[in-house]
Amino acid sequence: MPAADQALRILSHLATRPAPVAASSLARDLELPRSTVYHLLGTLAARGFVIHLREEQRWALGTAAFELAGGYARQQPLTRLGRPIVAALSDRLGESAHLAVMSGSDVLYIVEERAPRRPALVTDVGVRLPAHLTATGRAMLAALPREQVRALYPGASAFPDRTGRGPRKPAELRELLREVRLRGYATEDGEIADGLRSVGAVVTDRAGWPVAAVAVTWPGESAREATLAAAVRDAAALLEARTTR
């Protein structure tokens, strides 16, 4: 069996698992020699497609795998399916709406719908922002295995900030993401721009892996949060249904 095929089988298997996997489990599940699995994992790790979580002795997808997902999204499927949904969401709410994908520890905006007479935003198609500061990023991070989040944010140096707000160390991010999972949607209040708030909801694939997130941004107080969040969750669910059918 060609090495390329074996490597792709490893990546595909990791993408379907809810948590990092031991090399021995990969060898067993894929019916590959352990020596082959270890060799391929080493090669994939060198290129950033997988990461080795040494404390757990397990393997997970790396940031380069996220880049592939972002590349897929940029090449039309998610963009085409998401654009009318995001446009309808913006029209319905009278606020600016966005669709973003993960790209390493950033989010990459692939659809941007600006509402008339609303504040200018830093988000736009092709713009990257730190995932831990955005509603879209937090929604997707909350859907990742905790070990994967730990690999993306191993220490304080992995936490850039824009306005002096937001999590600054792994423990703070873990608590924030725990709240996102309990609430069912993510929020952001002034971490990207003063005076602006956002709510975001994740879009997952058939395996439950986050592939995108929908968000709405508005100025002012939090009084509209529940209403806007419900609409954003509906839009994310609609996009999820269209991408997985």
Show the helix and strand layout.
Blueprint: H1 3-16, H2 23-30, H3 34-46, E1 50-53, E2 58-61, H4 63-74, H5 77-93, E3 96-103, E4 106-113, E5 128-130, H6 135-143, H7 146-152, H8 170-183, E6 186-189, E7 196-204, E8 210-219, H9 225-244
Antiparallel strand pairs: 1-2, 3-4, 3-8, 4-5, 6-7, 7-8
Helix pairs in contact: 1-3, 2-3, 5-9, 6-8
Protein name: IclR family transcriptional regulator
InterPro entries: GAF-like_dom_sf, HTH_MetabolicPath_Reg, Tscrpt_reg_IclR_C, Tscrpt_reg_IclR_N, WH-like_DNA-bd_sf, WH_DNA-bd_sf
Keywords: DNA-binding, Transcription, Transcription regulation
**In total, how many beta strands?**
8
What is the N-to-C order of secondary-structure elements (H for helix, E for strand)? HHHEEHHEEEHHHEEEH
Overall average residue pLDDT: 88
Task: Give the distance, in angstroms, between the N- and C-terminal Cα atoms.
Answer: 31 Å
Biggest sheet, strands in spatial order? 5-4-3-8-7-6
Characteristics of this structure?
8 strands, 245 residues, 9 helices, alpha+beta, Tscrpt_reg_IclR_C, two-stranded antiparallel ribbon, 6-stranded antiparallel beta sheet, globular, transcription regulation
Description:
The protein has nine helices and eight strands. With 245 residues, the protein is of the alpha+beta class. It has a six-stranded antiparallel beta sheet. Strand 7 and strand 8 form a beta hairpin. The chain starts with a helix and ends with a helix. InterPro entries: GAF-like_dom_sf, HTH_MetabolicPath_Reg, Tscrpt_reg_IclR_C, Tscrpt_reg_IclR_N, WH-like_DNA-bd_sf, WH_DNA-bd_sf.
